[in-house]
Amino acid sequence: MIAIEFRIEYPFLRHALGQVPQMTVEWVRNTAVQGDRKMLFWASGDDFDRFEAAIEEDPTGRLARSITVGDRRLYQVEFVDAGDEVDRALYEVLLDTAGFVRSAIGTHEGWYCHVVVPDRDALARFFEASREQEIGYEVIRFYEMADAKTEDFGLTDAQREAFEMAIDMDYYDVPRGCSLDKLSEQLGISDTAVSMRLRRAIRTLGERTLSIDDEPTTSARRFK
User: Fold this and answer.
1) Phi-psi domain of 47 (left: phi exceeds 0; alpha: psi -120 through 50; beta: other)
2) DSSP 3-state assignment of 58?
3) DSSP string for residues in 137-166
4) pTM for this structure?
5) Which residues of the chain have pLDDT under 70?
6) Dihedral through CA 112, CA 117, CA 119, CA 125, nearest 10?
7) For residue 9, what are the contacts with CB-CB under 8 A and spacing of at least 6?
8) How many CB atoms lie within 10 A of CB 204?
9) 180-187 vs 191-209: helix axis angle to the nearest 10?
10) CB under 8 A, 24+ apart: contacts of 164-173
11) Tell me, what's the pLDDT at 221?
């Protein structure tokens, strides 16, 4: 598997972030329910009111809801027009190639992403889709990941079952979509056993996906 870090001129919320450059957003997940496509993300900065007003003027997104937690705010924003078109072109290509997003940080300078893909062909497909959309990007670094098998990542069948069910039932969402008791009921085991399986699964995934054999390969090429 290959991990890659890059900056991309992804258009979603670029207007809003440009209007309030002190704001930073951190992607949580994309969702699609009954045809509506939304992004869930954390935002931090010192002018949420101005940022929300700028979102309303942004041609790529429409504010659905927000929740304030401490000094951050959790937003759900619906993709519209060009934002929806680009998200389908890029995010769905990534999913189709069995890739996943480790992190995506948006600022007024662009989106800084860290993704994992199974091979170089998948990577080429993603960036080809970017070029087709005329979206510029800059590769910061990439590296091959050791001992990370796409089939199981070292998880036992029981750990994988519990982890997949937790994701499907939105256990890791903010706020949670279900409780540990509900997972326990669905799996037919105690809540303590569920908790232990999830913790071991996360530890194994972390050890496998963060394991690096060689020094990272760095690239500063910019593509247009």
Assistant:
1) beta
2) coil
3) EEEEEEEEPTT--TTTTT--HHHHHHHHHH
4) 0.62
5) 33-35, 82-83, 146-153, 207-224
6) -70
7) 110, 111, 135, 136, 137
8) 18
9) 100
10) 166/198, 173/29, 173/40
11) 41
pLDDT tens digits, 172-181? 887 888 888 8
Task: Let me know how long the chain is.
Answer: 224
Is 11 exposed, middle or buried (CB count within 10 Å of its CB: 0-12, 13-18, 19+)? Answer: buried
Question: Token pair for residue 155?
Answer: 């998880």
Q: Report the candidate in 11, 8, 34 with the shortest Cα–Cα distance to residue 101.
A: 8
Structure token pair of residue 4: 């890659």
Residues paired with residue 74 on neighbouring β-strands, in sequence order: 42, 67
Using DSSP bridges, classify how beta strands 72-79 and 222-223 pair: parallel, antiparallel or unpaired.
unpaired
Helix (DSSP H) and strand (DSSP E) numbers for the chain: 7, 10
Please report where in the chains the tokens 């979603």 appear, as a residue: 12
Identity of the residue numbered 169: M
For residue 181, what are the CA distances in angstroms to 157, 170, 173?
Answer: 20, 14, 16
pLDDT of residue 207: 66
pLDDT at 153: 65
DSSP string, 170-211: TTTSSS-SS-HHHHHHHHTS-HHHHHHHHHHHHHHHHHHHT-
Name the nearest CA neighbour of 199 among 168, 155, 144, 140.
155
